[in-house]
Amino acid sequence: MFEVVEVAYLPLRQDSSEILAYNAPDYPVRTGGDPLSIYADYAADCHWHHDFEVLIADQGGIDYYANAKRVRLEEGDAILVNSRRLHYGYSAAREECFYRFAVFHPLIFGSMTPISAAIDQLASDSSQDYWLFSAQTKDGREAVQLVDTLCQAGAPEDAFAFLSAACQLLSIAIRQNSGDGAQADPAWAILRRMLSYIQQHYTEHILLEDIAAAGAVCRSRCCALFREKLYTTPNIYLTKYRLSRACAMMQAGATITDAALNCGFQSTSYFAETFRKHYGMPPREFRGMQS
């Protein structure tokens, strides 16, 4: 049974994967859409889950990160992100984009069937992290239309339309798959454990040693993995994650002081200084924009 969990931001399972709030119980599908500006720095949090994810850029372009690869979606383009990949959408230029998305768990195809076996093989392929579909090409338009159908058919009563579109889209992905059966890079599992530690303990005092210990690696290896895979440092990632959680609290009506002290900042003044440095505005201005 799939439980619909009403939560605000990135609740995690024990394996550090995100728990998604599906559209309905026993139907592991979630659909929605947002402007990228709901994030103060025009960047979602880096996360992963067992579900496949599709996204279509309706108005404006969007940059995308998937397992250390960066790709650009122009308006009208779509992307399919493979299962169990670290990913997030963002705008390097902090420009608006209106997008729609759909996520669906592999179990929607059932288990112990030829289809589920093919899907599992696709998800397990370590070399294929995403598929980009351009609306400007003949081959891409079919896939973009299928992504559009998935984003619109999120209700349980649309299950047949959703399954049909999902099967067709994944069939395209399988045909385009360039995987060579390479073994998965164990560094990703280490990095996911360290990110999970940050996401579960960001309200506490965290040292670099703590993050490294979560991945069972030394400090230098920890820093090297963050640089290699996320293009940042552990401390910068931690600070940005705390800021994003504080933004979420203020969007929900929390005071600046409560947001600061409940997100791991030792003082309101330090929080305000860090917030201004990162977002280019004081937290008071950001909070005022939410009302």
Question: Secondary-structure blueprint of this entry?
Answer:
Elements: E1 29-35, E2 52-59, E3 62-66, E4 69-73, E5 78-81, E6 87-90, E7 98-104, H1 114-124, E8 130-133, H2 138-152, H3 159-176, H4 186-201, H5 208-214, H6 219-230, H7 234-251, H8 256-261, H9 268-279, H10 283-289
Antiparallel strand pairs: 1-7, 2-5, 2-7, 3-4, 3-6, 5-8
Description:
The protein has 291 residues and is of the alpha+beta class. It folds into 2 domains: 29-176, Jelly Rolls (Sandwich); 186-289, Arc Repressor Mutant, subunit A (Orthogonal Bundle). It is 42% helix and 15% strand. The protein has 10 helices and 8 strands. It has helices at residues 114-124, 138-152, 159-176, 186-201, 208-214, 219-230, 234-251, 256-261, 268-279, 283-289; strands at 29-35, 52-59, 62-66, 69-73, 78-81, 87-90, 98-104, 130-133. Strands 1-7-2-5-8 form a 5-stranded antiparallel beta sheet, covered by helices on one side. The chain is globular and about 55 Å long. Mean pLDDT is 89; it is low at 1-9.
Task: List its salient traits.
single chain, 291 residues, alpha+beta, Jelly Rolls, Arc Repressor Mutant, subunit A, 5-stranded antiparallel β-sheet, globular, disordered N terminus
